[in-house]
Amino acid sequence: MLLKLIYDITYQLALLMPRCGGRCFERNMAINMDKAQGKTGVSGSTLKIIAVACMLIDHTAAVLLGHILVDNGIYSVADFSFEYMQELIQASSIGWVYFAYQVMRRIIGRMAFPIYCFLLIEGFEKTKNRLKYAGRLFVFALISEIPFDLAQNGEAFYPYYQNVFFTLFIGLVMVWLMEKIERRCQNLIFRLTLWAAVFLAASVLAELIYCDYGAHGTIAIALLYLFRKNKLEQMIAGCIAFLWEITAPFAFVFIALYNGKRGIRLKYFFYIFYPAHLLVLYLLTWIL
Q1: Of 246 and 9, more confident
Q2: Would you say 161 and 155 are in contact if contact means Cβ atoms under 8 Å apart?
Q3: Distance between CA atoms of 45 and 63, rounded to whole angstroms?
Q4: Distance (Å, rounded) from C-alpha 104 to C-alpha 98?
Q5: Apex 37 CA angle, 31 and 38, nearest 5
Q6: 3-state SS string over the chain?
Q7: Which of 119, 105, 101 is nearest to 247 (CA)?
Q8: For residues 249 and 110, what is the distance between their CA atoms, to the nearest angstrom?
Q9: What does pTM read for this prediction?
Q10: How far is CA 129 from CA 138, 177, 198, 217, in A?
């Protein structure tokens, strides 16, 4: 299939190049890529499953492995250098737990949030009812807060760290306002000024209520929205937005394969899974 795809693209380029030059080359290249992704690629539901798997691995490390490390006297996981991990491994078997923690969180887990941000923009563009979409995010932000606080901090109420649904909700409201400004404001300078004000307000709010990812999340969502009309530019902007987390940009490898299709209908599964898995992980800490 890959060879056929390469052959089709090469054949089309050979036909088009002599007749219409660089612009036709770019246009038809994009058309061929879209057709190829439509036939293959991954659907929105597949992307969600990938994000859920990465998130589960991340949270399993944070909650369960983190609990094991604390029980063994390791209270800081900030040092992820190979030298330090090698010292721990040589000292005791807990070093392997520390190594697994770093791999699960720093490498695999970091790919979940970029996919969620991308899918948020896709959902915003394609949903039939944005008010209901925003409402679902807010309701599940409230539902998820106690399981999130229990899993992350061992307390039913912890005001200094809020779950990622709040970040996504703030991001959705932000891009919704940005779209309204874009439609109603013709003056470019005035539009950019209003966009900056909305973005700043969203970022400050995310930081003030201690959302997961904070202003980093609103920056990523804003960039993915602004460059949404060009897939390549959107992916580049997304990678730049997540450069502060070295492995997070690898999520855009999966996003590049997105074929624009919904896939299987499991809408509420992904909402329910978030608080449910956090609660299960918290309960497992009592068993270990």
Answers
A1: 246
A2: no
A3: 26
A4: 10
A5: 90
A6: CHHHHHHHHHHHHHHHHHHHHHHHHHHHHHHHHHHHHHHCCECHHHHHHHHHHHHHHHHHHHHHHHHHHHHCCCCCCCCCCHHHHHHHHHHCCHHHHHHHHHHHHHHHHHHHHHHHHHHHHHHHHHCCCHHHHHHHHHHHHHHHHHHHHHHHHCCCCCCCCECHHHHHHHHHHHHHHHHHHHHHCCCHHHHHHHHHHHHHHHHHHHHHCCECCHHHHHHHHHHHHHCCCCHHHHHHHHHHHCCCCCCHHHHHHHHHCECCCCCCCCHHHHHHHHHHHHHHHHHHHHHC
A7: 105
A8: 9
A9: 0.85
A10: 15, 15, 22, 23
CB burial of residue 76 (10 Å; 0-12, 13-18, 19+): exposed
The residue ranking higher by pLDDT, 251 or 79, is: 251
Please report which confidence band the pLDDT of residue 1 belongs to, taking 50, 70 and 90 as the band edges.
very low
The CB-side HSE value for 228 (13 A sphere, CA atoms) comes to: 20
- Whose structure tokens read 């089709």? 8
CB-based contacts of 93: which residues, under 8 Å, 6+ apart? none
What is the pLDDT confidence band of residue 5, given thresholds at 50, 70 and 90?
very low
The token pair that represents 156 in the structure block: 């039913």
Cα 196 to Cα 254: distance, rounded to the nearest angstrom: 30
Q: Which residue has the tokens 């074929």?
A: 259
Query: What residue type is 45 in one-letter code?
Result: S
